[in-house]
Amino acid sequence: ILNVEQSPQSLHVQEGDSTNFTCSFPSSNFYALHWYRWETAKSPEALFVMTLNGDEKKKGRISATLNTKEGYSYLYIKGSQPEDSATYLCAFRRVEGNEKLTFGTGTRLTIIP
Amino acid sequence: SQTIHQWPATLVQPVGSPLSLECTVEGTSNPNLYWYRQAAGRGLQLLFYSVGIGQISSEVPQNLSASRPQDRQFILSSKKLLLSDSGFYLCAWGILGHRANYGYTFGSGTRLTVV
Hints:
The complex is a heterodimer of chains A (113) and B (115).
Chain A: E1 5-7, E2 10-14, E3 19-24, E4 30-38, E5 45-50, E6 56-59, E7 62-67, E8 72-77, E9 86-94, E10 102-103, E11 107-112
Parallel strand pairs in A: 2-11
Antiparallel strand pairs in A: 1-3, 3-8, 4-5, 4-9, 6-7, 7-8, 9-10, 9-11
Chain B: E1 3-7, E2 10-13, E3 19-26, E4 32-38, E5 44-52, E6 55-58, E7 64-70, E8 73-78, E9 87-94, E10 105-106, E11 110-114
């Protein structure tokens, strides 16, 4: 059983503040790490796919980093806005040929106006 | 462009009744197809995935089954629902492939309540 853990479980952030949260995953047999945003009443939406140690990806005010040697990824949101309120999921993919993702339980982010 | 359709959106079923949830994908060929479930207070759990017609991999022992009768159709079924089958069911498609730089595309989900 793969353990993909996210912390914190939930987070309340004042509008305009920056925030970050963590995804931990097995450091062996790493292939890829995915981040998704899941807004209430919508489908999860892919944010990033990261494959290389030291990878940094950015999409607007959201960015992510990856450390495959120690098995963690950080997601950062700069200058939080109300529309950032969502559950952020990470998903781990093992070595090539494994066509499935194992998801963490998510970090539920609420932006306080 | 690719689209994924999942229905119904909500379902209330009595214990012991059968279940059939359907998912279809348009605009792509030979996609990988997945069924996930989110139970109350828990993360997304992979139930089944399929890399081709008639090929089903089961991840969790349970009273659910899946079938892929056509390339772009994935069906989740049960002969007799249990209370523990309640949850939010998501279908997804993806072509993870070799170093693919994109993830899954999810359907809109089905909220199943077993009473």
